[in-house]
Each structure stands twice: as structure tokens, then as C-alpha cells.
Amino acid sequence: MISERIRTANVLVVEDDWPIRHLLKVSLSAHAYEVSEAETCKEAFTSLAKQVPDLLLLDLGLPDGSGIELLRRLRQEHAIPVIILSVQGAETTKIEALDLGADDYLTKPFSVDELLARVRAALRRSKSLHAPTLLTCGDLELDLERRHVTLAGHEISLTPNEFSLLMAFMRNQDRVLTHRQLLKEVWGEGYVDDSHVLRVNVCNLRRKLNSPDGKRNYIKTEPGVGYRLCLPRPA
Ligand code: CA
């Protein structure tokens, strides 16, 4: 197992309306956030007891109670940023939530861009997230928030799996990562023996990261063990 799991912000979405919850999950996941979901206050408390997220997106009208009550109880223990999902016209509740320590609110319907901007701003303000969002190795830069990779300033287009693979490498520079570690990290537990899929993806990633003359190779093969990302030696 990779000892330090890739650290991106974890967002707990508490929302009983499936289409909205799904939209939030898809949009946030696409921008490298880890997303947990809860449909009710009860599920939210269970989730919070297991893992405290970096940010909470909270709907106020939940089937088994009010998000306001959840916020009140949360604030007794945690200072994580909370963004309220409110409906149009619910000004009093919005103010009540802000008074209780919510950081911001989004009025439904909201745009994905607006949501992401609010989440970024709330996380920036929060002290709870120390992980860098920009990983670098020489000329190579990986922006976790924007899911954007550049090499010497030029954007490189990667598939989602190639991106996750590169992210695993960049979080563990100069360390050998075994085939199993990488397969588990990127594809999941069920794929740990699928060395072919790893080989193909490493090969494609190398091709995208290498200079045309093939002299700049970031990903080193450790024969029989795995791979290692390190700064390419000057040609
Ligand atoms: Ca609701």
C-alpha cells in the first residue's frame, strides 16, 4: 500500500435530492475532490464519526430533520467549512445558518462553475487543508484542482487513468512504487494482478512525457518490482 494516500480535499455532500447530489458528486470528482455522500442527518453523523471531511455541502431540508440542527451539532465539535445548499427565498434560514457558523451558501439552482469557485474559496480560507494542489517535478507540473498537467509550460492531455497514475507518481517522487501499489491506487483492489493494463498506461504516459528524442524519461522501470518517478538526467 502507498503509505501516504493521495491527499486531495474530501467533501461530504449531505443532500437527499438525488439529481442534485449526483451532480455535486460528478462535478467535484471530476476536479479531483474525494466525495462522500449522505442522504439524511443520520447518515451524515455516521459519516462524520468515521471521517471528518475537509468541507461539508449541506442541504437544509433533509428527510429526518433540518440541516440547521446538523450544523448546530457539527459546530460543537468541528470547524470545517460548511456551504449551505438553500432554496430560493429561504433568507431567514440562510441567515440562521450563517449565524450558526456556515461559511457560505449556494442558492439552488446553481451552476457547477459557481459551486467549484465557492468550494475553492472556502477551502482556501480554511486551515484544515494543508495539502498542496500543485505537484511539481522538474519541468512537469500537475495541478490537482484543475486536473491540468503541463510539461515545460505546454499542456499535456492525459486520460483519467494516466492522470491518476501520474498523480500517484508525483506524490511519491524518487520512491519505487510496486505494480500492485499502482494498480490498487489507480484501478482499485480488483485489478492488483492486471499488470498488462499498468504496462500499457505507463507506456502511454511515458510517450506523452518524453521529449521527441526520447532522452527525457521521467518514469524509470525498476525491473521486476515497479516504477519510480524521478527527475530525468540532463541529456
Ligand atoms: Ca432537501
What does this structure look like?
With 235 residues, the chain is of the alpha/beta class. The chain folds into two domains: 10-126, Response regulator (Rossmann fold, 3-Layer(aba) Sandwich), CATH 3.40.50.2300; 134-229, Winged helix-like DNA-binding domain superfamily/Winged helix DNA-binding domain (Arc Repressor Mutant, subunit A, Orthogonal Bundle), CATH 1.10.10.10. It has helices at residues 18-29, 41-50, 67-75, 91-99, 112-125, 160-171, 179-186, 195-209; strands spanning 10-14, 34-38, 55-59, 61-62, 65-66, 82-87, 104-108, 134-137, 140-143, 148-151, 154-156, 176-178, 219-222, 226-229. The strands form four sheets. A five-stranded parallel sheet has the order 2-1-3-6-7, with helices on both faces. The chain has a four-stranded antiparallel sheet with strand order 8-9-10-11, covered by helices on one side. Strands 12-14-13 form a three-stranded antiparallel sheet. A hairpin with a 4-residue loop joins strand 9 and strand 10. Helix 6 packs across helix 8. Residues 1-6 have low confidence and may be disordered. It binds calcium ion. The site of calcium ion has 5 residues, from strand 4.
